[in-house]
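Chapter review: from sequence to fold.
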Amino acid sequence: IGCGTECVISESGLVTVTDLGDGVEARLTVGTTRTGYDAGTAWMTGTALNAALDPVLGTPTPTADGFTVQIDNFGALGDFDLAPVATFAGDQPAGAEIDGAGLVTVSDVPAGTVGDLVVTSSQVGYNDGTGTTSQKSLEAAHVPTYGDLVQTATGYQVTLTNFDESDDFTWTIAGTTEPGQAVLDDETGIITVTNLNDGAESTITVRATQVDYAVGESTFTSGALYAARNPAFATPTRTADGFTVQITNYLADFDWDGTATVTADPVVISDSGLVTVTGLDPDTASTLTVTSNREGYLEGTDSVASGSLLAAYVPVFGEPVADYDGFEVVITNYDANYVWQASATNTDDPIVVGTDGIVVVTGVSPGITSVLTVTTTKADYADGVDSVEGTAILGAALTPIIGASTSTAVGFDAQIENYRSGFTWESSVTGSGSATISSNGFMSVTGLAPGTAATVTVTTSRTGYAGGTATVSGVSDRAVPPAPVPTAPARPTITNVKVKNKKKNKSKAIITYARGSDNGAPILGAKLFCKQKGSKKTVTASSTSLKLKAKKLVAKKKYVCTVTTFNAFGSSAPSAKKKFKVKGKGN
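The token string follows.
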């Protein structure tokens, strides 16, 4: 078998024609020979493939996660199928897409890593074409981060924490929301925003760029401080060791602090904004300075001057002189240029300081101590205050005078001959009896057994008086046996319960009982009370006989019954409880 010098026939009969030009048509003739056989031939025509059209890739442009590259002959490849394949680190797959204009985008490549791209072109009748390129992706973006913030009256300052003046990045303010104006200090990395009104906010956009790096960009928002709340003061009120003043524009949302001159005492500011300055000597001037602070606000401050009152004029007392209803004392340093006021304990009488400085305290009970307090006042002076004690003369004891006792069935009676109201009269009895004293001094002793003697001790007491005491003895009348007094019957006893079971609620029970003692009066009858367990329902019955009938009992229910008897003097106590169950006979 032979086909000429430009073709090769394999052992399996595959004929390969070579050395044809791109797209050239040729005729192939194959002949066969064998001893003893006629020679055989056959022919055919075929065409070589057209030359491949390779994609021509332009200069790649790096991106944050890969690169882009233009297929420069994309128009000529319009009828070809284009297939992009991207990898990195040898065989790691990356993303690759071709848009409608022939721009290839390679993605999913780590920052700072070389990505490889192969674009294959194919079409029937043509050899496959390829275009290749490689490009390193951009280094990771240097995204601005922010640290210390300081708000100001017209804006704020914030520090870039990853700024370094010696690095190769270019730092810029890419945007600022109006009306803010931002400036970046390229030596310190501090951004200053100005031109804001009280409390107004502005957002800055900061960008860090460098060749072969992705663009780093971030935003930060803050605002200017609100206007300060400067303290406003009412008129100060001077005190003995300082002064007080109200902050009229006080708000609890602010932190308030104060200092004052010429004192080591701390300044106290109450929850209502009242400022108290202490620790000043009399008639000493001081300046109070108060500050207000709140997050997001400028510090407020203001001052007010005041001072302490002149020294107090303190009363000086002579020796008190006791009287029957109080005492008298002289103020030895009395000065009519001051206003004098007085009060005293243990009396309701008004106390007046005389123009001669003498104070008379009245209305005090004998033997009782009263505390007199005198206060001096005068404009621009501290109040002067001092006290002195005095005691009223003690009254003599009132000793009870008790007349002869008169026996009674349960004790004895006696009259207190010198009884006086205004004193407290108390009595105690030896033995088992008790005594009462009426409002006219009549004393009655009761609770003694017949023929029993007893002694009563009577005492008198009154504030400001010594105590008085006296005794009297007596004996009760001997006993006369009284006739028995009839009472209610004694408690009965339930002796038998007989239940007659019927349908539904028609069962009944016959309760037999035994009477207790009649206690001196005939028993008139008995009452039955049967309470259904688990219900408020109670069945009752009455009878003069020794048997009581409980009717309309509910089948299959338990009952608890008691019986009471009665006579003309009342009802007995209930009998002991008797329990039983109604069985019933169905519906």
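Two observations follow directly from the output. The chain has no helices and 46 strands. The mean pLDDT is 92.
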